[in-house]
Each structure stands twice: as structure tokens, then as C-alpha cells.
Prior knowledge:
The chain is α/β, with parallel strands linked by helices. It folds into 2 domains: 4-195, Zn peptidases (Aminopeptidase), CATH 3.40.630; 215-260, no CATH class. The protein has 7 helices and 7 strands; from the N terminus they run H-H-H-E-E-E-H-E-E-H-E-H-E-H. Strand 1 and strand 2 (65-72) form a beta hairpin. Helix 2 (18-29) packs antiparallel against helix 5 (121-142). It starts with 8 loop residues before the first helix and ends with a helix.
Amino acid sequence: MDHLADVSREDVLKRVDKELLKRLTLELIRIPSPTGQEYEIGVYMSEKFRELGLKVSFQEVEPKRPNVIGRLRGSGGGATLQFDGHLDVSFTGQEEFLRGGVTSLSGRIETINNEEWIFGAGAFNMKSAHAAYYTALKALLDAGVELKGDVVLSATSGEIEETQVDEFVGAQYRGYGAGAHYAVTHSAVPDFVVLGEPTGMKLMVGHFGSLWAKVTNTGGTVVHTAWSRGVENKIEQMDVVLQELKKWKAEFESISEYKG
């Protein structure tokens, strides 16, 4: 039986716990999880999913690199809606220029126009989304909403835009959707997926892809600028390559675009 129609929007919204949302966000960004080191935060997410009564699947993408998938079963006959996000962040915690954790509450939480904002790369991309999923689903459950379809919360490893090349190898370079790819090939695929990536509070109905390429120029000469006149310069040669890549890119995108 679907009781969604019996519960008003206001009934659900008044059960949204903003303090819980803030606390979960802070707890998540205090757990270090650079690409390749997602195990600790994965364990945390599995515990939170179980607190909601979800059936939890702890997928091992690689040793100590999990996907955590929690499913709330519906009564049947409805679509499955999944809320997905990555566990890894684009820093190790050592960089001065990219602080993503919270070292002091007063230094990371600010009040702007009477609203509290949490700043930092960890919150922005994208641990706040996981906290939002949890808080929203808890509000639905607390309001007594029963759905026909399943609701799935998923937290995947290895999304940050890094890939292996030459001497740059190891788990820290195995990102770019490694966990998400594993999830869709090792578990049931939902009818709809919402990705809580930061998009300026605008609904986006598509996502760009990517392709990594290494180009090596073996011709030309490395020469001091004082003696460069008339010499074939490697950097200038690469401009020709870049122009050809731009032409190829336009054609590749035209044949690769998928609009559903």
C-alpha cells in the first residue's frame, strides 16, 4: 500500500532535522578519505544505513575500497530511485591550499543571511550530499511514508578525476568512476538516479564524460631562446597537435553523446 498521498509535504518537511544534517556533514568531512583510502568512511556509511533500517551491501571494489549500498524496500509495483555519491575527496589532508576537513567549528561554519553554511572541499564535493540523503530519508520514514518502489542510497569509491599513467600508479590514481562502474556491473540498476553533485542548486539532466590521452612529441629540439631562431621548437610543434585534437574532439562528441 502506498501511503505517500496520505502524508503532506509539510508533514515531511517539519521532520527534517537541520541539526542532524549539520552534525552528519561535519562527521563525514572529519573522516579522511582521499582517493584510494575510502575504507574508514565506508564503514561509517554502512553503520548509518543500518541505523535507518536499510539492507546494506558492502561491495569490495578493491581491497579496502568499498561501495556501500543501502536499500529500503518498497511494497512493490513502483520504480526504484537511487541517490548516489562518491566517498573520496580530491585532497590528502596535507595540502595547505586545499583544506577539506574541519579543524575547528568556528573556522569552518559561517552564518550568512541568518543561515549557517559549512565551507570546505570535503563538504562541497560531496559529503554534504550523503548527509542530505540520510536526513531526507529519515524524515520520510519518521513521517510514516510508505512507498511502492525501492529507495537506494549508494556511496561509491574512486570518483575523483585521477588516472594511472607512467610512474603515477596505485589506488590513489584509480578514480574517475571506478566504484560507480563496479556498482552498475555488480548490482541491480535502478530506474532513476540522482547525483548530489554541486550544481548551484540547478537540476542538470546530463553529465559530461572524459577521455585521458598521453601525447609525446619526439621531434624538434630543446633550445635556449637566445639561439631559437630557425630552430624547430617542440612546444610550437604541439600547437599543431592541439588544433587537430580540437577537430577530433568535436567529431567524437557528436557521435558519442547520449540523450537517453
